[in-house]
Hints:
Protein name: PadR family transcriptional regulator
Shape: elongated
Helix content: 55-70%
Distance between the termini: 26 Å
Structural class: alpha+beta
Amino acid sequence: MDTQMKKGVLEMCILIQLTLKDMYGYEIMKLIQEFFPEVYDGSIYAILRRIKGDGYTETYMKDIPSGGPARKYYRITAEGRTYCNAMIMEWEQMTKSVEALMEKREQ
Length: 107
């Protein structure tokens, strides 16, 4: 898959997960790598920095129950939810278009 397209898909996947719950960076990285094992840690953290810089997420520190150091959690903002919903709609339209083209090819 094209690198730019993959970045967009990963960004959408991260934002979708953050609509479900706040997550810390390592937790997000492990979840994404479950489905995209070829993606490097640095790529995910770069996306997290970018979407935070764009105002789609914000961070806060949260203590962990075991007494270890506090973790930086990411939460989606209202602007991030709007952006995520727009991305999902674009994705759905694009996949419908590709499926329609595939059906034409099979005829």
